[in-house]
Amino acid sequence: MLEKLGQALKKATDKIANAIFLDKNLVDTIVRELQRALIEADVNIALVKELTDTIKKAAFDERIKGIEKKEHLIKVLHDELVKILGGYHQITLKKEQNRIMLLGLYGSGKTTTIAKLGNYYAKRGKKVALIGLDVHRPAAFEQLQQLAEKNNLNCFVKKDEKDPVKCYKLLYKENKLAEYDVLLVDTAGRHTLDDDLIKEIKALDKEVKPTESILVIPADIGQAAKKQAKEFRDAVKISGIIITRMDSSARGGGALTACAEVKDGAGVYFITTGEKINDLEEFNPESFLSRLLGMGDLQALVEKVKSVTDEGKQKEILARVEQGKLTLDDVVEQVKSMNSLGGFEKIKSMLPGFGKVDVPDELMQNQQGKIAKWEHIIKSMTKEEKENPELLQKQTSRINRIAKGAGVTNSEIRALLKQYDLLNSMVKEGIGTGAGAGEGAMFSQKQLQKMMKKFGKKMKF
Length: 461
What we know:
- The chain is α/β, with parallel strands linked by helices.
- It has three domains: 3-85, SRP54, nucleotide-binding domain (Four Helix Bundle (Hemerythrin (Met), subunit A)); 98-295, Rossmann fold; 310-457, Signal recognition particle, SRP54 subunit, M-domain (434 Repressor (Amino-terminal Domain), Orthogonal Bundle), CATH 1.10.260.
- Helices cover 56% and strands 8% of the residues.
- It contains 21 helices and eight strands.
């Protein structure tokens, strides 16, 4: 995600921090490199000039001397970048029912985003329903139903009704939708925001009475996001924006900064960073910039963990972690969660100090086949064996019995036991289990080094 921009920003801050003197040549070099990187990320040229003019002014401010000037310049750069990314905008769910309606043109990714939002709120303990009201696009209902079924979400559609307003009325009445905490409404798109689409959205707005109307915009349209956001804001009421495909577009910087430019417009609530159901995260400019600079984003990591683990399971596992004792089921659950988070490459970008750590590509690759095999192994065990795997290491006859029952080799069972030993020893040694760790507290540098050493040398999936 905007990797080149991140590298350029990090390089600029390092040059400022390491400089003995901030002379004109150095400042001009830093400014040129920043301008090039920001323009390549599709940021508006006028914004780039405004930002770099502010940096030049701060660099040659005679009232600030010595080390203080370097610190001041880095702060100015940081503040200006946060400013052009826009403020932090968050959806605050109401105690009564929340009805969130997603709007957007064809190809923006509304339907897949609906499923991601559904998963996001369901994993936070909310009773969620996906409502399909895109009555025009062929297979829209089927796509929404498949995504819901795959991710254990409630979904309601009415395939024989072609009027979206009537469709909503019938679905609401027939399926007792009043009992749900969050309704996520998928609407139709068009190639452009034409009169028919505006009329349809306004009619739905009157009937649904959404608590949030969110515009979905793909990152690859770059600076054109400003025009699209403005058109929707002027035609229909929107309360926020979700930018999709931030992982695959170099123009994401243009889309983010363009949305922030819309005066009296809605801010960016979420960005999507991949195809998986959990690849949705709140957009916080401060945290986003921290990650670009290689400084990590633990809050985003904590939020992603919440999205891949059910609240009840989190509490159960945390209780066992506090006791210093995991089960084999916990081991498989943790590996599943790692894969759902997008593998170690994504995770390490959120850990402070891990941005440049070289981790073998194969370390955290998707291991669905191996996970399925581990689950077969565990199903062939007794309750006592699952909770006390040490029994297997003492009595090889148990391993022979389980291997036969699961249709695997003894070495595959021992590989699972090895992962158990590794994770259990990490728990006992207190990695990530210090005060407040359950709330996503900061790891100490020593703990991080210990964890990376164990991952790099011992963990072989």
